[in-house]
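Intended use. Records like the one below are meant for learning the mapping from a protein sequence to its folded structure. Do not use them to infer anything beyond what is encoded.
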Amino acid sequence: MLTSDGKVVLDRHRPHYDSKDLAAADKPRILAQFGAGGGGDFVHSRTAQEDYERARKLLPPGVTVAMAAQFYLKHNPTGEAVTLEKAREDFLAHHKLLVGDKSRGYKDYSWRTKAFVAKFPGRHAASIVRTEAIDYLLRVEGGARSKLNHKRALCRWGNWMLKRGIRTDNPFGGIKRDELPKVLAKEVEFLPLESAEAYLRACERYDPELVAHEVIQFFAGVRADDEMASFRGEWVKCETREVVTPAEMTKTGVREVINGLEDNFWAWWKAYGRETGLLRPKNCKKRLWRIRILSQIADHKQADALAGMWIDKLLRQPFSKSLLDKWPWNARRRTFCTHHVAKHESAAKTALILRHRGDPETLHNSYRGLGVTKRQGEKYFELMPDKVAAPIRPPQLQRKIAPLSKNTQAREPVAESQNRNL
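Structure written out for the chain above:
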């Protein structure tokens, strides 16, 4: 306690007894209380203190008793030992119940955990230590971003094991960014005005069924990976000039409305849009690769000749890989952003269309200063459809009816072409 002048004085509390007999009767209680203390479920007794002191003498410097206890439980689990294979199976089953097995998250967790388990086959999940986790991440193929994404997926798995009592800690949870290769920011890549126009004209000339799928990204900024796989024509409301994505289909989990789109989007949609059904056609991936290759060929006669080639044969051409490698990541949405910000000289309207929930300044800093002028932005949104009367398509699969033989009642149709892409 403190005195009036601020000095500390030790004040010992001694209970008062009215008689010697009452004091003697309370002595066992005081002796039992002496040497014992603590809080919660733990009682710090003399025995516990002696046990702690013996443990500290056995442990090397820097190793706490808690760390020693975790190490013991890893190698001497009190419950049923769970292998990594079993832990992965149960984790994926749990995640499947939450989001289904078609989501990008599920597929990402599936292949990343599979790769980790393949490096430690048959190991108990509780036996993996932090140094093994770090060494594994450093040896993962790919760049710094790939290693970081791998770490995040495995960390989610580790947290799940921790909650289920499979582990007493998360070996991936304590790994800091400075323990992995540094992720370097890259400049935004997009299609210049001329390249974007050439690509859209190639869609019209060589595969008009793709146009609606592409313009919804080039002129409305719809997310390619998260939304386009399930994007439907009925989400485009021509009466109200809005694009309405249902909550269950959005990245944010809430219904999202895009309005304020440029007039050229509605012109393209009128020419190629669909009132109902999925916008993504069959065999979409290879068909998109075909257009990306053809759109980069300056000689139109050569492009027309290649357009009549089977898709698989076109993809095997020596120049195809280098042309596909030039295609920027997330090109359509980024091309829209770059030209939209340039046209309006502000990111506020672009952020609203993109459904960004952060500060528009972040978007401004990302897409300004990329060399696109206001006039180029205006010309981008002046691009209008120009339908082609006779699009050039790859050879179609031709089928013939084969005659019945004596030993065979029916035979498979004979194909003149091995191309089954379209």
